[in-house]
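Record format v2
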Amino acid sequence: MSTVTQPPDSDAGFRSMRQARGRWHILGRAGLYVLATLLALWVLFPIYLITITAFSPRDVVREYPKRVIPDEFSIESMDFFVNSTGVLPSLWNSVLVALITLVLSTVIGAPAGYALARFVFRGRDPYRLIILSTRAFPIVILSIPLAVTFLSWGIYDSIWAVALMHTALAMPFTVLITSSIFVSVPHDLEEAALTLGCTPLQAFLRVVMPLALPGLAAASIFTFVLSWNEVFAAVILTLQERTLPAQVLATLTSSPPHFRFAAAWFMLAPSLIFIFLIRRYLLGLWGRVSR
Amino acid sequence: MAQRVKWTPYLLLLPSALYLAVFFAVPMVQAFGLAFQDADNNWSLDSWRAMFSDASFNEALLTTLLLIVVIIPVQFVMAMGMALVINAKLKFSGLWLYIYAIPLGISELAAGIIWYAIFTQQGWLNSFLQDFGLIDRPFIFLSYENQGWLILAIVMAEAWRATSIIMVILVAGLQGIPRDYLEAADVFGASFWQKVTRVILPMLRPSLQVALILRTILAFQAFAVVIALTGQAVTVLSAEAYRWYQDYRDPHVAAAYAAFILVLSITSTILFLWLLPTREEQMG
């Protein structure tokens, strides 16, 4: 009615099209929230189930049918798991192996990452390509030949055997991730420090390191989780000096259900915290590396 | 000074290059060396013969391949869903990302046990089915006779555990797509589905390729999920390598399995690079 300048029916058509668009948009938005929630439930529900199972008394664990809302909280299963033979020493081994892996892979891998990020030199791209292509190999499988080597070196069945293997596993990631972290630290700042009289080492320690530190910390946490979770190499390379996953796997068939469920929760819990700590870095770390 | 700069990068690379040579390149050659030797270190094909004629070999190979063929499409669809949710910038986008990324930190073994708790005879799945009156006594999903259910349980556990890594790669890829492209599609009236198939998927090709390669390599090493869920009822290649090493004390046949898995992994990588060339490769 108010539209005099335009043919009325085309305007109405346009408006209804726009309205339809808007309706679709709102519907699409709502659909996305439904999808988001369903996918979140898919991830979280099994974690909820193992948590209530792990913290139920032993006779409730055996109960059938099970109740989704638990009415009794108990650390009986957890207590039984932690005090089972071999669990505490293997837990200690796991922490040690993960720490050694973290230190070794950072000390050896980060300089390479820095070199790839900061220098232009002959062989840079081929080296980057070699590091990238190691990911096309199932590195864990190499623990079988390594077991033979470690036997002859006399370090088979020790935390060092597992840590050396885990370092090999983590190394390509460490190099690529640290390289992408150092790339994100502005080169200008480093050059300014050099101009103002810093030695290259000073410039690195005083300017680059503080800026790179949060990213490096996130990368270290990721390496820790990688080692904490790894089981194939750990179970191949040890007999007595088990890590926690190796211990659980080796005794799995002979252990009662409440032991298994407590073990699963115990292995999972630190990861929930670690992933939470590094959540902001996940996309930066993995995303840039995989492009 | 100039001299030092020239050598600095090589000095920085050296430790990592040496480490990878000793703990990656040498063992890789050794895997083949061991596999082509007998117990007295003479060259022979005995280990390969033992592997190929082993009763479990065919089953392990077929199961490994079957798992890859079933799991990967499922995971890509789910990861794509997760990535689109994250990229749509809903409220609490940080929370969604965290939740979807949680399985990234969960071990194969823990995931296997979690899904064992669901599928076991007195487990959660049977409890739910009984609550809804669909069964009146627990069904035994995880028994040797029910290979289909065993495989399905492994697929569920793997899809649950290892979708996150694909999701993260895809989200990073999606964020690399310039907003102009999607806005241009909007201006020309493209539907959501058209945007996905005409703009997003082609632009995501490099990310998809990386995710596909990484995921396939990981699937060839699937191990603890299978053991935790099925015990010995289902076997895969890496479980056979473990069994030959640990139970039969034969590192040569175990190495033959390792070498075999290596060859399969490299073949599949080359296959994916060849089947899914990214734009630069097509032009180059």
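Chain B touches chain A through 98 residues (CB under 8 Å).
The mean pLDDT of chain B is 88.
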